[in-house]
Amino acid sequence: MLPDTAQISIAELGTAIADAPRVLGIPDIAVFRVVAYTDGGNWWPFAACLRLGMSNAESRVESPGPLKLIQVVASATRLSDVDALRQLLTSSWVHQGNLRTEGGAAEDRLNIYRQPGRTAWHQEPCWTGYINMAQRRGPGGVVFNLPPAPRGPFFDSETRFFADHIADAAQQWLQVPNVETSVNPTGRIELVVPDPRAFFSSANRDAEVVCIKIAGTDLENKYVALKRRTLQGAEERVTVPVTKAEACYQSTAQMFSVEGFLFDDEGFCYDRLTESEQRTGIFAEALLGRREQIEPAYRALVDALLRGEDDLVEFKEWLPLDGKDKKSSDLLKTVCAFANAGGGSLYVGVTKEAEVVGTRERLRTEKEDEYLTRLYRIAREGLAPSVIVRGTWLDHAEHRVLRLDIEASTAKPIEVTGTRQVYVRRGASSRRATVEEIRLMIDGTL
């Protein structure tokens, strides 16, 4: 009915809205809500939302203090007429709320996006977007601004509506997340078109079988496709047909992340979900397994691989320690930079592109302790004052990775003894400190 992401015209939006009751199986109701405020004379729009899929809605106005909460209800199928849609979005609510200011003509185009289910927009998947209101112009075409909105709090004794500030009132009335922190009029109309045909509803695990429950009005010929990542970094893909409103599959391994997609037999994606150790939701326990078994050091490695190098993380494919290779100086430079900043972690066996290659090709497992001992000695003798460095060997996708944790020093500036150079961490690079930065370290303010 609508693409996942696109820019469409108001006329195309009207056609989609008119088709929605037939295609999506939702009520033939379009609800337009507005939060308006007064400056003591005129009334002005703060924010608005056009939402489909609501049932038993009636036009009404609530008046908590200097606000008007306006609801205008129209037939969705009649909005294929672009003039009727513009009438709903601009002037109809003005009369419903007894407002004296014009609503402003809506711009002709808008961007739309398809959202998965279980978001702040809607429990079911939905299309969202917004329509910018055209700028208001006074005599001579000069643009004028809306007056500032009242701060609140607001209360309506008849309906018991309460909001502590105008953004809270807009969020409650419009039920969209984009207005939660607004302090000024948004100048736009939010759009929400729910799609209740098929969506992920829940998941459970019984021993080695995971079942994902599917809800909706049309569950025929649906498939669940999963992209799973194990704790060791291996990627697995699973596709399961939906049978009796659920998709079940065998799963014995513990997962770091799972992405799920709900398709029909023509390839349309109805819903999607994402669970990972970094961001868990209602499906995490069933899809990921027993998360408490993941060691914090390994979780930090995977998090670093996903994030990439930054002010707290550096990757080295290999660190030679024989002193003859120029790269051997990278150890002292990096440790010095982290110690002079906020500390950080250096991973050996990982490329700059966050690809894990491991250390086994250069270092046999039985030599790992010897390598780490030599590394500690180089760091101890090559930096002054001394820096605390701790090493941990990790397994990832059949590779060995060394993690070096460097503590932020309390005795800055730290310098490389051989060159008397001072380094500091800035973003994803370790560079020589400036004279001003060294002065701030001595003063204890950096």
Description:
By secondary structure, the protein is α+β, with helices and mostly antiparallel strands. The protein has three domains: 5-194, no CATH class; 199-293, Sandwich (Immunoglobulin-like); 298-443, Schlafen, AAA domain (Methyltransferase, Cobalt-precorrin-4 Transmethylase, Domain 2, 2-Layer Sandwich), CATH 3.30.950. It contains nine helices and 25 strands. The strands form seven sheets. An eight-stranded mixed sheet has the order 1-6-7-10-3-2-5-4, with helices on both faces. A hairpin with a 4-residue loop joins strand 13 (222-230) and strand 14. The longest helix is centred in the N-terminal third of the chain and has 15 residues, at 10-24.
Into which percent range does the helicity of residues fall? Answer: 10-25%
Q: Kindly provide the radius of gyration, computed on alpha-carbon positions and rounded to a whole number of angstroms.
A: 30 Å
As for the number of domains, it is 3
As a percent range, the share of strand residues is 25-35%
Multimeric organization: single chain
Based on secondary structure, the structural category is alpha+beta
| Spatial arrangement of strands, main beta sheet | 1-6-7-10-3-2-5-4
Q: Characterize the main sheet.
A: 8 strands, mixed
Count of alpha and pi helical runs: 9
pLDDT below 50 for ≥5 consecutive residues: which ranges?
136-144
Give the overall pLDDT as a whole number. Answer: 86
Assign an overall shape. globular
Number of strands: 25
